[in-house]
Structure formats: structure tokens, C-alpha cells
Amino acid sequence: MCNKRNEKALNPACLLQTGSTHIYTTEGTSTVDDVFDDTYREKEGKKPPRILVWRNIILMGFLHVGALYGLVLIPSASWLTLGWTAVCYLISALGVTAGAHRLWSHRSYKASVPLRVFLALGNSMAFQNDIYEWARDHRVHHKYSETDADPHNAKRGFFFSHIGWLLVRKHPDVLEKGRKLELGDLRADRVVMFQRRHYKLSVVLLCFLFPTLVPWYFWGESLAVAYFVPGLLRYTVVLNATWLVNSAAHMWGNRPYDKTINPRENPFVALSAIGEGFHNYHHTFPFDYATSEFGCKINITTAFINLMCFLGLARDRKRVSGDMIAARIQRTGDGSHKSG
What we know:
Helices cover 53% and strands 5% of the residues. By secondary structure, the chain is mainly alpha-helical.
């Protein structure tokens, strides 16, 4: 049937069901409140002062110093520890990309309880705020992108959109718009709310203790190497890979789908953030589970979701039709589109 929730009352998009994939055939449809609201106007006059959050500044400083020390220790790490670091990187990244982002923020596919539990565990390992808060802020980011109501407004510069937004108090408009979003789907998800209730404990266990104790216990890695390499270094790299989506992917790259918005196609970000760098496409079609026209190309997250569907742990992937993509490229693209 047709989905009636549309941007600007555009014709609803009917779905062609192909297995567990839904193909959208006309523009303007989204399953959540993540469509850009062009009726929002920034308040005139002097901007509110930036209030520094010194706790975050100090903790981020220590974290990055610890990560640099982890780099120094890499030659001392065993191959098993380096492999474990890569596994922890992948799990924590998937907790953000396949979990907090594509599943819970955009509802671009459906996941079984076991898969949701795995993604929630990965999200706690990533330590980037609990799923509820992450998804709320991300929906605000899409709805009010690059305005005062955007939590990491890229128009305030690279540093602010990358990490600075975490070092200052949120703009009042971010808080106001976040409170007005309809988040009933998140509150109704028992996995999301369980993780939210036990978030601090889950972070201690999954982001720090688990990555450290496994190499120390199972193959005798030193505690220092185990803590600073698969622990702090891995965590810091995942953080910065995610932040690059907010910063670099809003500043550098081409805009083949919509030249009127700042988000860009950035292959480096796609590689580091396991598929999240096709950002012009994603902001144009936020409901597409692949966040890219090209499926699994430089997109580990899409390959993972496809595998979960094959195993019966996920279903109902939402996908944009080729005709819709071609029409959008023709109408608003910057002329840089290349097929494949």
C-alpha cells in the first residue's frame, strides 16, 4: 500500500515488494520525521553565547592522548590483538551505522530481536550516547540540517561539526526541536529502552573492559597494550570516523543528487565509516536502507544488512527506485553523477 506521510503533500510513494525489499517509485516519502523542514526560520538577533562543557573538553583531551599512546604501542601488539581490534572496530561501527542510524533513526529496515540486541551491544561498545538520544539528535539533524536547530551544524565550521558540538552546550533550538519530535517508536522498543536504562554500565563493560580483557585473558596480551589499542585507540578512531560524516561529508565531495544542499559524496568517509560517506544521496533519500545508489560498493553496512536479511534476521529493506534517482539527478544534480 502507499505510505501517506509525505514532504509538502507530494504524491505518496507506492511500494513494489521484491522479496524483503520495498522499492519507492515516487519522491517525498519517509518513514520517520526526518525530512528537511524548510519552514523553520532561525531567530534574528544576537546568537546565544557558547557555553563550554569543561568535563567533555577534559575527557576528550585525555581520550585522544590515550589514543596517541595506543598508536605508539601498536608495534608491541600481537597479530591476534590487532585482529581483535579490527573485530571490535567493526562491531562498534555497525552498532552505529546499521543500528542507531539506519535501523533506529530512519527505520529503513526491520530487525529481529536477536539482531537488535547485537546492534544495541555494538552501540554501547561505540559509546556515542545511547540509541534513544543518538536517534533523536539525528532526526533533528535531518529535519533542520545546517541551521541553528542542527546539533552539529556544518555551517559553523569543520571543528564545530566534527567535535566542537560535543564540547559546548546545545543551541536552545536544538533542545526545543528535539522535544517536539515524535519518538514513540523508540520508546516502544524494549531493546532501546533497556539499553538506555543500563547505558553507563553497558559502556564500561563493552567499550572498555570487554575489548581489554579478551586479549589479556585468552592469549596473554599485556594489559597496557590491550587497554590502549583495542580499547582507547579503537574507540577514538570509531568516534572520529563517525564525526567525519558530520564534518568532511558536509564540506568536501560532489553533489550528484542535490546541489542545493551541502552534504557530499565522500569516498574516504564511506571507507572509514563503513558506508556512511554517500551523504548527498543519504540526505536526498534518507529512507533508503543502503544510503547509497550503489548497494554494497564501499559499503560494509549495506552488505551486513543484506546478510542479515539472507539469514532471516532482518526484512523490509526500503530502497529508492532507479527511475526516482534518475529524475532527481536530472532535476537537482550538479552534473557529476557517474553510474556504478
